[in-house]
Amino acid sequence: GDRAHKPFICSDADVCSIDLDGTEDYIVLACDGVWDVVEPNDVPELVYNHIQQTKGDRTRTAHRIVEVAKESGSNDNISVIVVFLR
């Protein structure tokens, strides 16, 4: 990152461990550029709507979440990975 900001930035990642029970359809991994402007509870609807609009094509689901973050005003780095489990 930026050396000038090093004293003010913590490189320790937020980590959350969740046991999966096998009913999960996908996992969304994203950085704070997404979570600062998109509520986690809104993501399932975003994913579902995207899949419906693309007639089941899941290939650009992460791109859609990036678009929503940009439209919502994120001015931070935006990275998204959607891992479909089924």
UniProtKB/TrEMBL annotation:
InterPro entries: PP2C, PPM-type-like_dom_sf, PPM-type_phosphatase-like_dom. It comes from the Eukaryota. Residues 1-85 form the PPM-type phosphatase domain. One of its GO terms (molecular function) is protein serine/threonine phosphatase activity. Gene3D superfamilies: PPM-type phosphatase domain (3.60.40.10). Pfam families: PP2C. This is PPM-type phosphatase domain-containing protein. The lineage of its organism: Eukaryota, Metazoa, Spiralia, Lophotrochozoa, Mollusca.
